[in-house]
Write a structure and sequence with these properties.
Its EC number is 2.8.1.7. It catalyses: (sulfur carrier)-H + L-cysteine = (sulfur carrier)-SH + L-alanine. Helix 3 packs antiparallel against helix 10. A seven-stranded mixed β-sheet has the order 2-8-7-6-5-3-4, with helices on both faces. It has a four-stranded antiparallel β-sheet with strand order 11-12-15-14. With 414 residues, the chain is of the alpha/beta class. The protein has 14 helices and 15 strands. Helix 9 links the parallel strand 6 and strand 7. The chain folds into two domains: 148 residues, Aspartate Aminotransferase, domain 1, CATH 3.90.1150; 258 residues, Aspartate Aminotransferase, domain 2, CATH 3.40.640. The structure holds 4'-deoxy-4'-aminopyridoxal-5'-phosphate. 4'-deoxy-4'-aminopyridoxal-5'-phosphate binds next to helix 5.
Length: 414
């Protein structure tokens, strides 16, 4: 695969030729085919779905439903009805917290999450635990930043009702042993929710191998538009989840005092959905399939390793997480320099990274023992030269701040 040619599919790289984009975990850039699909939809196919009988509206409905099938294939589900379109990972997880666990969790029961969860796979469970009196358990990390499976085995037991776990950490870049943890959850009659927001963009997923009960991911982190995402519900559970949003097109029959639900998945998609988003996501999936997910996974892991090795050689730089890199995410700090200052210095060189807690504050504060980090997140269109430019600039930041600190009184030095 020729990365130079791949980059030409992404107009933003032509418009911003000096940019080094390393904030892919926040959102990825979009290929021309996705951008064109959006404008083509509005120019030619802008009709509402599942409503009108006239031909173009039927054709748009067919295109929309075709994407559902495409996504089912992408994650190895045999049943397109298991795919529900949402606004993104956050909405998908909240749908399950409210639509299933709010009615299926009681005092004394337990939810297990890992300490590396993104807030969107944490706060819904925190609130539910507070409301119901259920206990929220945190699976810790090993010293090198992997999920502590031994601790998970101790923690997940007969009281556990839910294990909510990310497939890939958006801060440390580690891949979690989802299949193993899923087996453990099921052995204890608990359900497993997989937050695949960072996993789906970077590696193949097969729900028939992992067997999650619920899974969530976002289109915008995998070349698709913003505001569109996916909730996968294991077909066995589709009838057990209650839609919390009620309105148009999710009903079968409405009388003055009651209503009946439409079949799945329509009952979960109340109101006019993000049709353009779905069409754009379909093109994104097509693009990923063309590159193939195993190639993307290897490319991201190789780049991640290269960047890790480059940054580890820079004096006064701390790189977080294991030495062996599995994905394209590399979080780091420069000793004595605030991550926002590092990110601002990089910005002056058109190198775009994120500084902060990456919506994973318990991990950053309690495990990494810091207030914030700088995060470089690579995707397949990044290059080794992007990594080199980042490492060179970080080296300059280190030298600049180190030299400046020598002029400070001792108590003020980092
Ligand atoms: N979980 C993880 C692991 C993520 O990386 C993200 C996005 N950064 C989310 C959840 C939330 O995704 P969204 O903001 O698209 O809903």
């Amino acid at each position: 695969m020729n990365v130079k040619e791949i980059r030409q599919d992404f107009p933003i790289f032509k418009h911003r030729p000096r940019m080094v984009y390393l904030d892919n975990a926040a959102t990825t850039q979009k290929p021309k085919s996705v951008i064109q699909a959006l404008s083509h939809f509005y120019e030619y196919d802008n009709f509402n779905v599942h409503r009108s009988v006239y031909t173009p509206a039927q054709q748009t409905t067919e295109k929309y439903e075709h994407v559902r099938k495409q996504i089912a294939d992408f994650i190895g589900s045999r049943n397109p009805k298991s795919i529900i379109f949402t606004r993104g990972t956050t909405e998908s997880i909240n749908d399950i917290a409210i639509g299933y666990f709010q009615r299926n969790l009681s005092e004394g029961e337990e939810i297990s999450v890992s300490i590396m969860e993104h807030h969107s796979n944490l706060l819904p469970w925190q609130r539910l635990a507070n409301q119901t009196g259920a206990k929220l358990n945190y699976i810790p990390l090993t010293a090198n930043g992997h999920l502590d499976v031994k601790q998970a085995e101790q923690m997940i037991g007969p009281k556990t009702k839910l294990v909510a776990l990310t497939g890939v950490s958006n801060v440390l870049g580690v891949i979690n042993p989802i299949r193993e943890i899923c087996k453990l959850a099921h052995k204890n009659h608990a359900l497993l929710l997989l937050d695949a927001a960072q996993m789906a963009p970077e590696m193949p997923i097969n729900v028939q191998k992992i067997h999650p009960d619920f899974m969530a991911f976002s289109g915008h982190k995998m070349l698709g538009p913003t505001g569109i995402g996916v909730l996968y519900i294991n077909p066995k559970l589709l009838d057990k989840v209650t839609p919390w949003q009620l309105g148009g097109e999710m009903i079968q029959n409405v009388t003055t005092h009651n209503f009946t639900y439409a079949d799945v998945p329509q009952r979960f998609e109340a109101g006019t959905p993000n049709i353009a988003g779905v069409i754009g996501l379909g093109q994104a999936i097509k693009y990923l399939n063309h590159l193939t997910m195993p190639w993307i996974q290897k490319r991201c892991a190789d780049l991640g390793q290269y960047l890790y090795d480059q940054l580890s050689q820079v004096k006064r730089v701390i790189v977080y997480g294991p030495k062996h890199r599995q994905t394209g995410i590399v979080s780091f700090n420069v000793k004595g320099v605030h991550p926002h200052d590092v990110a601002t210095a990089l910005d002056l060189n058109q190198i775009y990274v994120r500084a902060g807690q990456h919506c994973a504050q318990p991990l950053v504060n309690d495990c990494l023992k810091t207030s914030a980090t700088v995060r470089a997140s690579l995707y397949f269109y990044n290059t080794k030269s992007d990594c080199d430019r980042l490492a060179t600039c970080v080296r300059k930041v280190v030298n600049f701040f180190h030299a400046a600190q020598r002029h400070l009184p001792k108590y003020d030095r980092g």
